[in-house]
Amino acid sequence: MGLISYAMESFPSSLTSFRKAAQLSMEAASHVSGIFINNIACVHTDMSKLSLARTEFDKSVQVQKGESLDISLDSVALGRDELLSISISIFNVGVSCAKQKQYETAVSHIDACFSIQSTLMDESEAIVQTTLYSLNLLKSLVPTSRTSYDTL
Asked: CB 149: neighbour CB atoms within 10 A?
């Protein structure tokens, strides 16, 4: 229901459905709940509630990580699908930062996403290519540090 409402741009209804799904899935698997929280954040982004979206994206990553402090690929607590899902939420945090013109923070998040994705998948995969494109675009928006020679 949440996706249907979202596609119809009925954002309040979409939020209600995603919140209920997140609540129900919390009892079963935090990873799944984190995906629904990511969806809630996407709705907030489309409603131009960027601060709220950022908070929800961060919460999504934390919920998906669960008790694991280690989201590295060597982690036995998280599988490939969970790590990929976390990378998508991290990407979304980066997009949220970019929309708020926090380009350096955005680059940091998109770079972390790219690191996870490029290790999990071949770099020719579309999702990895999209992430790399976004990363390079964002890097072009970060002002370079000025040296004393620049002011002469």
From this structure: 6
* Identity of the amino acid at 100: Q
Distance CA 69, CA 71 (A): 7
Distance CA 131, CA 128 (A): 5
Q: For residue 22, how many other CB atoms are within 10 A of its CB?
A: 23
Please give the C-alpha separations between residue 41 and each of 58, 91, 141, in angstroms, as whole numbers: 9, 12, 24
Q: pLDDT for 104-122, tens place per residue? A: 999 999 999 999 999 999 9
Q: Which of 40, 35, 34, 33 is nearest to 11 (CA)?
A: 40
CA-CA-CA-CA torsion for 136, 141, 142, 144, nearest 10 degrees?
Answer: 100
Q: Helix or strand or coil: residue 24?
A: helix
Q: Which residues contact 14 (CB under 8 A, 6 or more apart)?
A: 2, 3, 5, 6, 43
Nearest alpha carbon to residue 42 among 61, 57, 64: 57
Task: Dump pLDDT digits (tens) for 72-98.
Answer: 555 546 688 888 999 999 999 999 999
Rounded to an integer, what distance in angstroms lies between the CA atom of residue 115 and that of residue 112? 5
